[in-house]
Design goal:
Blueprint: H1 2-24, H2 32-41, H3 46-73, H4 81-103, H5 108-122, H6 142-164, H7 171-187, H8 210-217, H9 222-238, H10 245-263
Helix pairs in contact: 1-3, 1-6, 1-7, 2-3, 3-4, 3-7, 4-6, 8-10, 9-10
Length: 264
């Protein structure tokens, strides 16, 4: 089962890359919001490919979660430590990829999520040195676009390669991944774009970022929020040690419950 999910994960990533490449041709960071709306309403099949890119990416992220859950549910992790590290890295990079993609839609919710992320980086010692890698005061979305379209996909490809030792997907898995993405695209809807001039009472970022946003709203400081966000990755890396596996799994469940509670 773990192996099948692993191959499906790679296939979903390829569907996301191909659909994202098509969307990228119509996206201009200097006219971010306008180019997204042109995709929605003017460019032929633009809305379809945007939906396909969104849902294939969501499915890719969920499949990584599922792959890791299946791996840790077994009696001991059977892969090498290096392979395990790269799988956790791929999860972290997938979250960053999804977040940068969310910001690139350039509506009110995207701008709000970006500002929350900037505050988390700026108000955390050491992390504040990396703010310039993401924040651009001239063309706001340019650096997000570079990370989303170039750097993060390349690093994920490297991490996946180091994890599975090869990157090749059969036509069968690709067809299944494409079918899943098409089904989700046709029967579900993306979160709507909140126009820049619209009076919105409440805006929020991507679903996996809701907990961080809500924790900041209730007064938790940026350092504490960042440590809470980092904790599951530390626990997952520590899980490779067989002696304390049961305790770490319990801690992961407690973390997931707490974060889900603050997300909702």
């Amino acid at each position: 089962m773990v192996r099948y999910v692993a191959w499906l994960t790679q296939a979903l990533f390829i569907v996301s890359l191909l659909s994202g490449l098509i969307v990228a041709f119509a996206y201009y960071p200097s006219l971010a919001y306008d180019s997204v709306q042109k995709l929605n309403y003017i460019i032929p099949f633009g809305s379809f490919f945007r939906q396909l890119h969104y849902f294939s990416s969501e499915a890719f992220l969920v499949s990584i979660f599922l792959h890791i859950v299946l791996e840790i549910s077994k009696n001991g992790i059977k892969i090498s430590f290096n392979s395990w590290v790269y799988s956790i890295l791929a999860l972290l990079l997938a979250l960053l990829l999804m977040f940068t993609g969310f910001v690139l839609k350039a509506d009110q919710s995207a701008n709000a999520a970006a500002q929350v992320a900037f505050s988390l980086i700026k108000d955390t010692p050491l992390l504040d040195n990396f703010l310039a890698f993401f924040k651009d005061n001239t063309v706001f979305y340019w650096k997000f676009f570079i990370w989303h379209a170039i750097f993060l996909p390349l690093i994920i490809i490297y991490a996946l390669f180091k994890h599975v030792k090869k990157l090749s997907v059969s036509i069968g898995y690709f067809t299944i991944a494409l079918g899943i993405s098409l089904f989700l695209s046709l029967f579900l809807h993306m979160p709507r774009d909140i126009a820049l001039e619209e009076k919105a009472l409440h805006v929020k970022g991507p679903w996996f970022f809701w907990g961080a946003e809500n924790l900041l709203q209730i007064g938790l400081n940026a350092v504490s929020v960042n440590l809470l966000l980092l904790l599951p990755f530390v626990l997952l890396l520590s899980l490779y040690r067989q002696s304390s596996a049961k305790i770490i799994k319990i801690l992961l469940l407690i973390w997931a419950f707490i974060y889900a509670y603050f997300s909702i």
